[in-house]
Write a structure and sequence with these properties.
about 190 residues; single chain
């Protein structure tokens, strides 16, 4: 059974995905999580604490579903690991839909919220660095600045494709095909530099 704080964070991700950051009310969150508002304040102090920890929860959950492997399977090649890290963000599962929707809502709210903007910038930077490291494993001769730029383009594209897919603008298979093509293009470009 999940801890109470995890239970609250799961509920917060659901509420943010459905109603956005502005629609997050502690009373509704308490009802969604099946806990008291006092318990939420005990664990998270205030609304900012809830948002910060929900962002961290979403990042950790995304890392789990993009890196989990069958323990009996052979280790993935660097290219397979890169593909999985990016393409598993485009899965038609409740968890991925919820995570991606909540991430988009947090990003949109960060436009007007300086504290959230800083937290989101740090989380995004970590994601870009992780993707740059994976790109570097596939193209080890590429410069650090080229890897960082390629990772920035890929993660930005992935966010855009995810939002288009979630909002019904494109089908998931098309989003995945576009992402595969972008990965191929970035790796080819890195190989020429």
């Amino acid at each position: 059974m999940a801890s109470r704080s995890t239970q609250i964070l799961e509920a917060a991700a659901r509420v943010i995905a459905r109603r956005g950051v502005r629609g997050l009310r502690v009373e509704e969150l308490a009802a969604e999580a099946g806990v008291s508002t006092a318990l939420i304040y005990y664990h998270f102090k205030d609304r900012t604490g809830i948002l910060r920890q929900t962002l961290e929860f979403i990042n950790n959950r995304a890392e789990r579903y993009t890196t989990s492997r069958d323990p009996d399977a052979p280790p993935p090649s660097p290219r397979e690991e890169l593909d999985d890290t990016l393409l598993l963000e485009l899965q038609d599962t409740v968890e991925v839909r919820e995570n991606s929707s909540a991430w988009g809502e947090l990003r949109a709210s960060a436009v007007f919220d300086t504290e959230l903007r800083e937290d989101l910038a740090r989380a995004t930077l970590t994601w870009v660095q992780d993707v740059a490291a994976l790109l570097g494993q596939v193209q080890p001769m590429a410069s650090a600045s080229s890897l960082a730029a390629a990772a920035e383009r890929l993660t930005a594209l992935l966010e855009g494709l995810s939002m288009r897919w979630l909002s019904g603008g494109i089908r998931i298979d098309h989003a995945r095909d576009l992402m595969r093509g972008a990965i191929d293009a970035e790796l080819a470009r890195l190989g020429q530099i």
